[in-house]
Amino acid sequence: MKTGSHLNLLNYEVSITENNKLIEFVVKMFQKHNLFLIFSVDCMMDTNLQKDDLTGTIKFIPPLYKQRYQFIKDLVIKYKPKKVADLGCADCTLLWMLKFCKCIEVLAGLDIRENVMKEKMHRLSPLPADYLQPSERSLTVTLHHGSVAHKDPCMLGFDLVTCIELIEHLEAAELEKFPEVVFGFMAPAMVVISTPNSEFNPLLPGVTLFRHSDHKFEWDRAQFQSWAVAAATSYDYTVEFTGLGTSPPGTEDVGFCTQIGVFVRKYPKNGETVNSEKHTEHAYKTVFKAVYPSLKDEKYLQNAVVSEVLFGADIIKRRLLGNFKSEWKDHRDGLETKFKFQPFKYFMRRSKNLPLAETEKLAADRSTEPFIDGNTVYIPLAKIFSIPKVNQLCGTFEKLSKLIAGKVALSNDGSAVIVTIEYENEEQEN
Ligand code: SAM
User: Fold this and answer.
1) Within a 10 A sphere around the Cβ of 372, how many other Cβ atoms?
2) Of 47-56, 207-216, 284-293, 361-370, where does mean pLDDT reach its minimum?
3) What is the pLDDT of residues 245-278, one digit of tens each?
């Protein structure tokens, strides 16, 4: 084709991370094909903003809602709160993300729309794997149906309360009560509030008044900050402002797309602090509660210890029999067939050249090594306690004895785990 020829349509899908690379690419294509090209191009900006200069659409990568969840997750990783409540939790996605944070022991969600909360709440239930391998930490997840305009004692004692894109959905009367309920009554160590920054709106295509039809208001930075500072001052909190979603170069003066206030309670508060309103009536309805299996629960700890003990005992038995068998092979030429698979004690005596009395003395010394007597392997509890996982789970020898009592076969005096040797299998193996 000659210069100036028109090619109807060429669709190139290219991934370009810098504008200069885009220009380079266009120039090269012109040189190569020597023709007119029609491009549809998305520029992916490293600032996490995607702006199509041709159409004016703005997209955030990752999407802004994910960035907001990640912001909370990062705070959780940094401050390690044990009890976290998400107000206006909607479909519980943030709660679901937070359940994987090992520091959290109590998670609670609150929303005024019960159906939305229930849609995906099954994600908050323990998985089969949680039962197979219970976690060290305890975790309880609860969902409540109710309004942030009402106080309920179930929201007391939290370390972190998050309100992500919530306040702009509140009616004026609810918004008025919000500071008293959240900062005054719940009074967590930290509160995070995010809300749209209306100064960013002109950059968002299609946004005329508000970003969402259910928004009752949208504040600019000055409005949000003066409301937040007033609330913080009234309830003895500090507040710092940040945000997510940067604007394109040249429009930085509009601030972040999402504005965020991080409030930190100034005064210390322990669990025993008397709250005059602690005895407030319940206003919320609990719609979901999941208690995760945890090793802090004696039932799950016992299961875990018993299975580790049986597993460990089996390994010790096999190791012992392996050693025994190799010794057996060494000696079998000189022995009569009648010894085969029966006389372990006798064999020990023979192989170690010990008189029978000595063998029994060795057997009686149960605090030392495992030994075989007849068709039984004795594994002293001291040996079992030295298995790292068992030791870690039990902490003390007494706890080990207590947890396995009645669950694992023990010698008459309770000093050793006993495991029976299956002769027939042994014979088949030979
Ligand atoms: N926080 C979630 C997120 O970031 O994905 C959901 C935000 S959604 C935009 C706002 C949520 O606040 C909705 O699920 C709505 O039902 C809830 N909400 C509105 N008014 C409320 C109130 N008075 N009390 C509790 N939740 C409320």
Assistant:
1) 20
2) 47-56
3) 999 989 999 999 999 999 999 988 765 444 555 5
Q: How many CB atoms lie within 10 A of CB 77?
A: 11
List CB contacts of 123: < 8 A, sequence separation 6 or more: 92, 96
Instruction: Give the integer Cα–Cα distance in Å for 374 and 361.
Output: 15
At 233, the amino acid letter reads T
Q: Is the CB of 163 under 6 A from ligand 1?
A: no
Place of tokens 């969600």: 109
> Which DSSP helix (H) or strand (E) runs through 240?
strand 237-244
Cα of 169 from ligand 1 centre, angstroms: 7
Cα of 336 to ligand 1 centre, how many Å?
83
What's the pLDDT score for residue 362?
A: 52
Query: Which residues 6+ apart lie within 8 Å of 341 measured at CB?
Result: 423, 426, 427
The CA dihedral of 162, 164, 168, 172, to the nearest 10 degrees, is -20
CA 234 to CA 395: how far, in whole Å? 47
DSSP H or E stretch at residue 265: strand 258-265
Instruction: Please tell me the residue having the least CA distance from ligand 1 atom 17.
Output: 88
Is the pLDDT score of 17 beyond 80?
no
Sign of the Cα pseudo-torsion (303, 309, 314, 315, in order): positive
CA 267–ligand 1 middle distance (angstroms): 29
Sign of the dihedral through C-alpha 102, 236, 224, 251: negative
Which helix (H) or strand (E) segment holds residue 242: the answer is strand 237-244
Strand segments, DSSP code E, in 11-114 are 43-44, 49-51, 58-60, 83-87, 106-111
